[in-house]
TrEMBL record:
Organism whose genome encodes this protein: Lacipirellula limnantheis
Role description: Catalyzes the condensation of ATP and 5-phosphoribose 1-diphosphate to form N'-(5'-phosphoribosyl)-ATP (PR-ATP). Has a crucial role in the pathway because the rate of histidine biosynthesis seems to be controlled primarily by regulation of HisG enzymatic activity.
The protein's name in its UniProt record: ATP phosphoribosyltransferase
GO MF annotation list: ATP binding; ATP phosphoribosyltransferase activity; magnesium ion binding
InterPro entries, per database record: ATP-PRT_HisG_long, ATP_PRibTrfase_cat, ATP_PRibTrfase_CS, ATP_PRibTrfase_HisG, HisG_C, N-reg_PII-like_a/b, N-reg_PII/ATP_PRibTrfase_C
Cited PROSITE patterns: ATP_P_PHORIBOSYLTR
Membrane-crossing residue ranges in chain numbering: none
The entry's keywords: Amino-acid biosynthesis, ATP-binding, Cytoplasm, Glycosyltransferase, Histidine biosynthesis, Magnesium, Metal-binding, Nucleotide-binding, Transferase
Activity regulation, free text: Feedback inhibited by histidine.
Amino acid sequence: MAENLRIGIPSKGRLSEISTELLADAGLSFRRQERSLFARVRDMPIDVTFLRTDDIPVLCAEGAIDLGITGSDLVNESGAVVSTRLKLGVGKCRLALCVPDDSGVKRPADLDGKRVATSFPQITTGFLAGHKATPHIVNLSGSVEVMIALGVADAIVDLVETGSTLAANRLHVLAELGSYETVLVQNPATPHGHVADRVARRLEGVVIARAWSLLEYNVPEAKLAEAEQITPGFNSPTINRLEQSGWFAVRAMVKRGEVIDIMERLEQLGATAILETAISNCRL
Ligand code: AMP
């Protein structure tokens, strides 16, 4: 067995930087020499390996790496037997079956015998089989969205994030095949389980810290119960009595995307001194 745990991260592309930042925020920092395959993590028995994002699920299942950061879409498509330890809260997208706006294809079943371009042949074939359709799959590694204009396909199955690529190519979503995001995967038989647990816990702290803020405010006793309903916290809010009689100080974790709305609601309720603080790391 290798002496150190090996974690595989994408060597290039959008996930490469995201993975490096996540690991650094979790206290796992390393310096990558140009073009080298490995880097040693400072102060931990961990080596980082730089790999193609779509090879990471299979290399993890085969034991070449103990942990990996990749897309759950690629895990699904590969069929690799790995455990998903953690959703990393980034890279969220949907896999969608898309047709031209003027297409005669109205339902997935209409694609029987038609040409479907995709980088996800397994998921696509499985999905369409469920609709009793057997398409001709045009298996491509990228730029799938232009294949209808090129006359290569009648429909595509591709990842959609904002939908702007679809709109630019005059395509629309006929059906969704799944929702995916960036994940931490683990070889189920890794001999480095203890270190893998530490990495997963550290990354979890960062993922939660990025998704939540700490909100503090003062509220009169008569409104305390209502305020607690607005900010129930991660588990439970902290409540302290203020020196000023009839007033309480509340501290609660709040989802970052909801902070502005919640601050408004608390203010309308009569809360004062409402402060948001970013959390940079946590253990819950
Ligand atoms: P959008 O125009 O925002 O819908 O993005 C669609 C384009 O970005 C397509 O070419 C997708 O293949 C690619 N894309 C979107 N989300 C992801 C993701 N999470 N991972 C990899 N590629 C993605």
